[in-house]
Each structure stands twice: as structure tokens, then as C-alpha cells.
Amino acid sequence: MIFLFVVPATFIALLVHEMGHFLAARALRVPVLQIAIGFGPQLLSIHLFGCNIKVAVFPLSASTSYGQHPRGMRASCIAAAGPCASVLLAAAALMVVGLPWRGEIVDWTPALESHWASACLVTSIVSSTIALFNMVPLWPLDGAAILTGHVQTAEGDGFHRGLVLWSLQALLCLILVVELASR
Description:
Blueprint: H1 6-27, E1 32-48, E2 51-66, H2 72-97, E3 101-102, E4 105-106, H3 109-113, H4 115-134, H5 142-153, H6 158-181
Antiparallel strand pairs: 1-2, 3-4
Helix pairs in contact: 1-2, 1-4, 2-4, 2-5, 5-6
């Protein structure tokens, strides 16, 4: 039964993630042309706040298109806003579930007994996964945009600083993956 919540939870998590980019771009006065969620046949297309929002059948990807390509710290801030929004959604959904802690153990039974709690739990898991995945420093993910924005902001020899920053972020990602895999 809990698997029935995965598709709607993924749609909600992707929408909130892309809205994070949208709100940051608007705050930094970068025009947003389109938010696209999913792939395959288009289900819905609406125009809100000067932005086209398109929703397709399979919500497994999402993107935001800008009227001008942001550079430097603006690009970093806009890129970081998506994962931040995802983390906030994950935390909010988990708080709604209200899982009781017993020492170091979380009691999952309340989340599995209620449809609402199950939906919130799945939304939290999907949203936190989207946030973590998007921090990987590979294009077209947010981690690469964040890193590129920092490199563009750095003065001096951009190539060497960029190489150092890429190496540091790759090392941090490797440490994170090893840490998560060891649990």
C-alpha cells in the first residue's frame, strides 16, 4: 500500500524543489521562463507569474529554465535553493508524521498504520533523496551549478581554483557516500 504514495510524493517533491529555484531566481531578479516536471506526454501546462509550468506523465525529472543564464554567486544561490527546499519539505513531512523516539530507535509503526502518515513518510524519503542526489557535482545537477558559480566568483587563476574546488567537492561527496554506505 505504501508504494501507491511514491508517484504523488515524487511529483510534490520535484515541484517543491523547482519552486525553490523559482523563488530564489525571482528574489535575485533572474527571469524564470519555464518549470518542467516529468517526461513523456504532457498532462498540464499553465502560465503563472510569468512562467510556464509544464507537467508530464512520468515525474522522474524536473528542470527550470531562465531568461538569462545566472553566473557567479547568483547561480550558486539559485542552484542551492532547490536542495534547500527539498530538505525543508523532507523535514516538514517527517515532523507531521511525528515518529516517537525510543532511545536511538525510531518506532515506525505509527507511519505504517495511517495512510496520511505513510504518505508523509514517503514524501520525506523522496524529497531528502532528491536533495542529496542533486548535490552531486555533475552536470546538470545542482551541485555542479553551485560549484561553477563559486569558481566564476573566484578571482585570479580560475582554472587552478576551479580544479581545487572540484577536487574538494568530489572528495566531500566520496566521504558522504562512504559514510552512508557504512551505515
